[in-house]
Design brief:
Blueprint: H1 5-21, H2 27-37, H3 42-75, H4 81-117, H5 124-153
Helix pairs in contact: 1-3, 3-4, 4-5
The structure holds protoporphyrin IX containing FE.
Protoporphyrin IX containing FE binds next to helix 1, helix 3, helix 4 and helix 5.
């Protein structure tokens, strides 16, 4: 059984996908439990979410892109739709994480800290920010799943 550099880079491409996106599908469960069990944990949850988005998601996106570019060049796939889609997906995901998810998570953390310090429940501002995180996060998750399908089907 011959192992080629191409096979190894494909493995690295998929490892990057797992590292970057695995956690994204668990966020809704973690936040739902935190909000129900102990709202005081929400500021810390947002902080963790933001560090993960920066280090894991955006970091591993670079691995996915770098390995993907090698595969596309080596396999002669650049003219294929799935590769163009993949490049577009990376740009959209990196853009939304950097421009929407990270700043919104920071604002949500500050807002819930204020609400909790005032001794109250999570207020309307906080709920609006978490709705945005849920909607954009959900869109990102769907985009990742569709991209995996396109990568496997290779249209
Ligand atoms: C969100 C972004 C991406 C995800 C989730 C993703 C996921 C995957 C997965 C799961 C495979 C394995 C499918 C298979 O082997 O049949 C794959 C293969 C591949 N990916 Fe990606 N990918 C992404 C972005 C990219 C980008 C940006 C490029 C190119 C610049 C790229 C190029 C390729 C190529 C050429 C293959 C085929 C390798 C082969 O089967 O020989 N991918 N991708």
């Amino acid at each position: 059984m011959a192992v080629s550099v191409y096979n190894v880079v494909l493995g690295i491409h998929i490892i990057g996908v797992v590292l970057a996106f695995g956690v994204v599908f668990a966020y809704p469960i973690m936040f739902a439990i935190a909000a129900r069990q102990d709202p005081r944990s929400l500021p810390l949850m947002h902080r963790i979410e933001r560090v993960i988005d920066r280090a894991l998601v955006n970091g591993a996106l670079v691995i996915v892109l770098g390995a993907g570019l090698y595969l596309a060049a080596e396999g002669g796939y650049f003219k294929d739709f799935f590769v163009q889609w993949g490049i577009g997906a990376i740009v959209v995901i990196g853009g939304l994480v950097g421009a929407v998810m990270i700043p919104t998570s920071k604002k949500a953390q500050e807002t819930i800290e204020r609400d909790l310090a005032a001794g109250g429940e999570p207020g309307e501002d906080y709920r609006r920010l978490t709705r945005r995180l849920n909607v954009v996060g959900g869109l990102l998750s769907v985009l990742v799943l569709v991209t995996i399908l396109f990568m496997a089907i290779k249209p």
